[in-house]
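Example (one chain per record):
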Amino acid sequence: MKHVLLGMIALMATAGTVRAQQPADSLRYEIVNNMPLFYQQMKEQLTYPMAWGNAPETDFGQWRTKARETVTECLRNLPPAPRDYAVQTVATEQREGYEVRKITFNISAWSRVPAYLLVPDGAEGKRLPAVVMLHDHGAHFTIGKEKMVRPFGVSKEVLADADDWAVRCYDGQYAADYFAANGFVVLCVDALFWGERGCKEGFDYDRQQAVASNFLQMGSSWGACINMDDVRSAELLASLPYVDPDRIGCLGFSMGAYRSWMLAALTDVVKASASVCWMNTTEHLMTLTNNQNKGGSAYSMLIPGLRRYLDYPHVASIACPKPTLFFNGRKDKLFPVAGVEDAYRTMHRVWESQGVPERLVTKLWDGPHFFSRDMQRETLEFFKKWL
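Predicted structure:
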């Protein structure tokens, strides 16, 4: 019995020594700033085997087809395309040089949505260039399309909300109105969860997680649904008799920028794209300090499984050789400059490999997360050149 007691005492002493040798903090958590402690190892496993130059395809056309199929395969269980857009005009307002039409149309076989369609005067009988305008996230859900089109026939509160947002993010200028005044047909639709496609129970930042989770549990993703809605919007524009189907572009700011380069990658209905303040790499976004790791706003831009094959600039490169523009801000706290520069280099190598380096425009502005009037003017000039 004495030997047993001595043995137990020795074992307890050893166990106590082992516990004392373990770093105290490693016993209390394995998540820090919403990231697993092994997040670096997870990133190291991302080799992006479908990227141009990594994939087995050496013919660019074949690679482009395969890469697009890879992205599309990750966009699962989505609403089918509508049989008929069945566009109806609900109301109109004449502005200087163009008409703003409040319309409704079938964006899928399951959803009918409101939208703004801006049509330059004298469009009938012509074939005009057109742009799909894609609004931002901004953790601001009460308005969507109204962030880019000055609304009409709305409450004073909605109009004040839109005017305030235009000042905060767009330098006091509605981008869609600006383009329409310069001869472009413009379509702007609420993304699912924003504006007139929001929550019956009211707008709540935390509802994003529930919406995203419910999509995932039904074999799809919220982000993929938004992307496919954007494809349908471009297809609607191409069907209009006063739109030249060979001169359709897309433009977005912030989340809208992400939607823009995704749209250009997903469909060749879009002939040119511009994306302002959304481009980076997973290496630079998935860190302990970047805003991306908070979840929330990222849910609307997540495509499950896609990072196993392609990083952000690789997906955007599927648009090559189309004319493509990227603007970012050096003082943008959401997108680290080093990551922006890495992404730009990756994309430039692709456009250069196809002998069309002049079709990719990238620029770092000395400013924050903001779509200034100067940026809007240069974007307009880009589309005038290529559409």
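Caption: Residues 2-21 form the longest helix (20 residues).
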